[in-house]
Write a structure and sequence with these properties.
By secondary structure, this protein is of the alpha/beta class. It has ten helices and 16 strands. Strands 3, 5, 6, 7, 8, 15 and 16 form a seven-stranded mixed sheet that branches.
């Protein structure tokens, strides 16, 4: 079978489209034939070696796959063959493994998909799982009305905006261009701050009648995270769920002290907090599947590339020039 592997960490050029051995399902396992494979920024972090939970090298990248059960191992019912399923590496013993034409996983690791969720849309479900986890894991005990999300055109950002709406919250996002602003509002955001021409905190307080936002979600870090803190309402919480640019400097605590009358909080969030809590993790995903099947949330548009073009997809990630879910087709 064909797969995309890395033998060393580095830029997009380290991705290799290679022939690998077709895996055989063992006791309790199923073999899934890929229909669509999700590409995400987590794959980029694994590729460049900065991801704490990266698999050992050489490794096949990829953390989500929609496919069909093609064969089963001993102890697995044969009537599962032909079922369409979602695989998330959050259910596997190690991250990665999905940039391939086939993958073998334990039967209890899969999620069955309703017919009305397309292959490409299913690949956004892990983002909605993450969005629910972050919104439900808040620790300030006041009624939340508004959230701020950095990089509103991203997949997780869109999932946050749509999930927030389910909890009767408005989502304000930041974007660098008119194109990204329009895309974000088409996918669930109430308002957009164009940070290239507007001061984020100033505009946030204008949009919220001087109150600020209750929750601010940032995946960038560095100076951007300071804007999230400055935009908070009294009792607000700023949540850093990734760090694409840099670690916020120690002055973040001076900033919190500066606004001490607001009693602000910060949190570093990771879905890895649920690695050992299978029950909650799977409930979050099953709730996401149900919400999408019922039309309560919707995946952003997808952009498809052949699996052999994985290098090109990672180059787009590096340039920040993509809108919508990036999908690899075997």
């Amino acid at each position: 079978m064909k797969s995309v592997k890395i033998f060393q960490h580095g830029g997009p050029e380290v991705l290799e489209y290679v022939e690998t051995e077709l895996p055989t399902p063992m006791q309790g396992e199923i073999r899934v034939q890929a229909l669509a494979i999700g590409a995400s920024r987590t794959d980029v972090l694994i590729r460049d070696g900065s991801y704490k939970w990266a698999p050992t090298l050489p490794a096949i990248l990829g953390n989500e796959m929609c496919g069909v059960i093609e064969s089963v191992g001993n102890g697995v019912a044969a009537d599962l063959i032909g079922k369409r399923v979602l695989i998330s590496s959050r259910e596997l013993s190690k991250r990665g493994g999905c940039y391939a034409e086939f993958i073998c996983v334990n039967e209890d690791a899969i999620y069955y998909l309703p017919e009305n969720i397309s292959d490409a849309d299913a690949l956004s479900l892990p983002n909605f799982q993450l969005a629910q986890a972050m919104l439900l894991n808040r620790s300030n005990y006041q009624e939340q009305k508004t959230i701020l999300v950095t990089g509103a055109a991203g997949g997780v950002a869109i999932a946050l905006a749509q999930t927030a709406k389910l909890f009767s919250m408005d989502a304000i996002g930041t974007a660098s261009s008119d194109e990204k602003a329009i895309f974000a509002q088409e996918n669930g955001f109430h308002s957009i701050v164009k940070y290239t021409t507007e001061d984020i905190p100033t505009r946030i307080f204008e949009l919220t009648g001087g109150r600020g936002v209750d929750l601010a979600f940032d995946h960038v870090g560095g100076e951007i995270f300071f804007n999230s803190i400055k935009s908070l309402a009294p009792g607000g919480l700023a949540i850093l769920y990734s760090m694409l640019v840099a670690t916020p400097e120690a002055e973040v605590f001076k900033l919190l002290r500066k606004y001490r009358e607001k009693s602000l909080g910060i949190k570093c969030f990771s879905m890895h907090m649920y690695d050992s809590n299978r029950e909650i993790r799977r409930k979050l995903m099953n709730d996401a599947i149900s919400s999408m099947a019922l039309g309560r949330v919707s995946a952003p548009k997808s952009i498809s590339f052949p699996l052999c073009d994985a290098v090109r997809v990672h180059e787009l990630f590096e340039r920040g020039g993509s809108l919508g879910k990036m999908v690899l087709i075997p």
